[in-house]
Amino acid sequence: MGYFIKNRTLLNYFSLAGILAVGFYFLHDVIGAQFYPGYDFLSQAVSDLTAIDAPSRAVAGGLSSVYGTFSIISSMAIVLLVKNHVNKTLKTGIYLFALMNLISNIGYSLFPLSTSGYAGSFQDIMHLYVVTMLVVLLSIASLILIIIGGFKEKRKFQSLSYIAVVALLLMMSGAILSNLVDPSIFGLVERFSTYSAVLFTGVLGIYGFRIDCTTII
Asked: Which sign, positive or negative, has the C-alpha torsion 35, 122, 66, 26?
């Protein structure tokens, strides 16, 4: 264990920012809701908390910004760490996942919802039909490549592939069910998609910490 810890680089520690990202995303959801009178986790989307006219925008938006910063730091560190240590398929999947995080954080910051739900404004169109579509497509593509590439690495990253399978199933079920379920539980199933991507960022951070310059522990 001592050898393992001593052989970590600054990039390894930066990758652990993914765990902090998970924590701040959870805080932005939970604490943000406390500043939104009448907010309903079951029926309302997470993005309602940072809508332009949301009473929780200042608090939830601040915590979301911290989450975004940590997720990008972690993603960039992992991109650099895997450069010469994994097969091309897995590496491409991780690169696409990092790109998804970048687009997600920049896109949603630039185009928050104009109001809770969907009002059809330019902001809302960009939020839902441009940023969200890009995030979903990149997430699915990246997870599929990570699953395939992880199994190619056998014992080194096989466990990551299994986790990616779970994340992909949750993400797709959330995306599909959010269009089918009763509006009273829309917020619940929508969180299947959002939290699966956020939690997987934390998982990748842990795997990034385990990579050193000669092998993968």
From this structure: positive
d(CA 198, CA 183): 23
DSSP codes joined into one string, 145-205: HHHHHHHHTGGGTHHHHHHHHHHHHHHHHHHHHTTTS-GGGHHHHHHHHHHHHHHHHHHHH
Distance CA 81, CA 85 (A): 7
Stretch 192-213: mean pLDDT: 90
Domain boundaries, the chain: 2-209
Residue 190's φ and ψ, nearest 5 degrees, are: -65, -30
Q: Which tokens belong to 165?
A: 């399978």
Angle at 19 between CA 100 and CA 199, to 5 degrees: 55
> Confidence band (pLDDT; 50, 70, 90) for 3?
very low
Report pLDDT for 98: 96
Do 63 and 30 meet the contact criterion of CB atoms below 8 Å apart? no
Of residues 8 and 24, more confidence is placed in 24
Report the mean per-residue pLDDT for the chain: 89
> Taking Cα atoms as reference points, which of 68, 59, 67 lies closest to residue 32?
59
39-93: pLDDT as tens digits: 999 999 999 999 999 999 999 999 999 999 999 999 999 999 988 778 899 999 9
CB atoms within 10 A of CB 144: 16
CA distance 132 to 174: 13
